[in-house]
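Task card 7
Instruction: Convert sequence to structure tokens.
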Amino acid sequence: MNPPESRHQTGASIGGPIQKDKLFYFFNGETTRRDFPAQNRVIASALTDGAGNFNASCGAATAAQCEAARAYIFRNNNKLIERTADSELLFGKLDWRPNETHSLSASFNYLRWISPNGIQTQAVLTNNNAASNNANSTVRTRYARLAWTSIISNNVVNEARFGWFKDRLFDDVNPEFIPAATGRLGVTVGGVPVGTAIDYPRLNPSEQRYQFANNLTWTIGTHTLKVGGDVVNTQDYLKILRNQFGSYSYGNFANFALDFTGNTAGAKRYQTFTQTFGNPLLDFTTRDYSVYIQDQWRAARRLTVNLGLRYEYSQLPQPQQVNPDYPETGRIPSPRMNFGPRGGIAYAMNDKTVVRAGMGVFYARFQGAMLQTLFYGNGLYQPQITVLPAQAGAPAFPNTVTDFASFPRGSVSLYHAANGFRNPYTIQGDIAIERQLARDLGLTVSYVYTRGMAITTTMDRNVGAAGPEAAYRINDASGNQVGTYATPTYRLANRVDPRYLRVLEVENGGDSWYNGLMVQLNKRMSRGLQMSFNYTWSHAIDNANQGGGSNALFFDTLRSTSNRSYEADRGSSSLDQRHRAVTNFVWAPAFTKSTTPGARYFVNGWQLSGIVTLASAQPLTPTMRVSGSPFSGAAFNTTLNGFGGSNRVPFLPFSILDIDQTYRLDARISRELPFTERVKGYLQFEAFNVTNSVVNTFRLTEAYSATGGVITPTANYGSPTQSQGFPDGTNARRAQVSLRLIF
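Output:
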């Protein structure tokens, strides 16, 4: 499927001197009007076959119940969802040189983005997200920058910069996709959202940031010293109450059909019910301070040494509300020992060969979204309940909980930072050899190593120790037993504090490893041809089931298979890509030296450029869907062991399902039109993925489902489900024509 799309972009730039050799201006404006409807489909192992045909069992549901549930779930299936995106981008800049030793630069940028149904950007969505997990997107961004460069003496230069940044993002659900039967209630069946998107409305965030930085460069003999620092003040204002209207999750279609209609007895066949209450408003400020010193030392004619040290400190905001049951909710540690040493050398072995090497420590900034979780998640500010159907006070579909007093006991979770919580950081090193092979040809071979440490993870202080094993029967597709699986279990009876469901501690238990070998061959422009070839072999590994950055902002879920079993969840990262080769070229032939009008307008002035990408597949990890309670007394009913963390298949390795290889050519043909000596035009035709080699970007990861102690393979496991691509939402062929005038 390839939904229709049209895009119209216009832009103009103007610049020049206001005062000769003193004051200059530049202004740019661009507008985009894009119409790119989304094709919405439902393809899920719990509901359909691989082609999207409904095949779910109705179980004990009547024919009428089955049809009512099917009609509700598939009400937007195979529909083309209207979606547009309008944007305006304005940029202006002034440069002033009052004298030979001072220069000032001021710039301003403005972006306005309005996109109805534009939260989801893919061209085709097979998980019903275009209708049931979508919203209208609005973004407004502004920033201003002022820089002053001063030559203090013939060997001292100072640069001071001030920046102001303002971002405002607001999203809400299109009323067209709020079903009359359930309103703004969230509903998922077999992992597929079929109700209303639960994260909206949201102002997340309205952020204002001020930054001041100063850098001093001082040259002393063979040393070039740089000393500087910056201060950043970031204010985040939010208005968001995720899942305030409640959400039901069902493991299979049959149970949903029984609850959806005709449930006069108020039976409860869902997996979980969740709902959030409290204050949607949050306003906090983070201040970041950093200083650095660096020395570039020309130690010898062929040897240059760089040494540096950077110090960073984040003054984190502290929660104004503390849960007395857990005083840790009142404190977010601000680490004070973030020293980052850096060093590097460059050695010229001869006139054609240079060896470069470097190593350094780099710290990640605390994300505002993570701080948001720690503020909201103390069990008081925005208490969220998670209810199992067997709990006292559990509602029956489609009812919700109306007030705090009706909270089922032990249904509220809370979050807090671990004692000693700190920034994640990386140790990065590289070594490269550069060799000039010819006058216009150079070869670089390099090795890169990155070690990620103290990566943010979560563990549950309240789930208790693992208890007796539960045994499962593994069947084949025909129902014959082919094996067994046993696992230690987490049980409701072992919960440490029965007043709460989970007590999630945000800590630093994750690690990552990256090794990469790169070869780069560059041909500089000569005889009308410029080329570059890059090949990378790499391997990315992580533990803690980090999922390649999934939930890398809020840290309000558990990703490990068992509690704090980070090393047991080690494997190739979902971002791992072993082989990637990219070639780009520009060919601007001069067919004749003639300057006649015919040569200028028809023969010369052509240019062909392109990018060829060849890459091996990235991996996925097989998952399992659990319907009903996995065993009697399970603490949570979404995983075989009752932990409720990762839903990966625990008896299969990580990252064993390859997505797809990439073969892609992007090309441009451009023609220079020299209208006059001062006015030129450039006519360009561009095609992305010229050969229309559609690449799958996801596959169905559900390898098994489990019900009543029996594990059954999923029939369409591994089948492709999407072929997405940035920025068009698809990696299918796209073409565009543009005209640019320069005068």
